[in-house]
């Protein structure tokens, strides 16, 4: 048995904000010498689609998310736009607007894009496994996902997770 | 400032990019060589300490120069 440390992650969320933690931790652990595997299931499958344009962020019903503008003078950027849920829910395209603003904020802060982080993970040989059951449940096809994926079930996850030093559910 | 063999400017980059770039650059260097890293992410101070500790590379120095963070790491 090798003494290399192991990190197992289950990625279950399919939004732009929650796409970050699995890829940030996986790529960093890999740089620290860990062997890493991410098991993508349910909405987490969105993170391994070829097309990442479906990743959006919604401030609706998310009181933890500040709504600030990524442009304009400093005083303007500092304003937290407290938009009531009932209004957010009724403006068509509100989610797309919030997503565009968040992408701008991400770029302004020198934070990597999801595509970039995902590629860094792949370069670092982080193993990506997709849950075959949810692939079928949501009507996806293997051709919807990036190359280099493995398709398996819960038993395959435990094979690696059972030997891991750190196991995270996200 | 001590001598170094390669320089990596990670200014403007945020977590985890400075660490990932440093790891990649060190990968192409020889044992005993020194990498100078410049970063603006305040989190990188603790991160490079932790990186060195966990990867066995030596953090020779960590400091601030003209508002930027500068690290010297010697490859194991």
What does the model show?
The complex is a heterodimer of chains A (170) and B (76). Chain A is an alpha/beta fold and 170 residues long. Chain A has a domain at 6-54 and 113-169: Hypothetical Protein Ychn, Chain: A (3-Layer(aba) Sandwich), CATH 3.40.1260.10. Chain A has seven helices and five strands. Chain A has helices at 20-31, 74-77, 85-88, 94-108, 114-123, 132-137, 154-161, and strands at 6-11, 35-40, 127-131, 150-152, 166-169. A five-stranded parallel beta sheet of chain A has the order 4-3-2-1-5, sandwiched between helices. In chain A, strand 1, helix 1 and strand 2 form a beta-alpha-beta unit. In chain A, helix 1 runs parallel beside helix 5. The longest helix of chain A has 15 residues, at 94-108. By secondary structure, chain B is an alpha+beta fold. Chain B has one domain (6-74): TusA-like domain (Translation Initiation Factor IF3). Chain B is 30% helix and 34% strand. Chain B has a four-stranded mixed beta sheet with strand order 1-2-4-3, covered by helices on one side. Chain B is globular. The mean pLDDT of chain B is 94. Chains A and B meet through helix 1 of A and helix 1 and helix 2 of B.
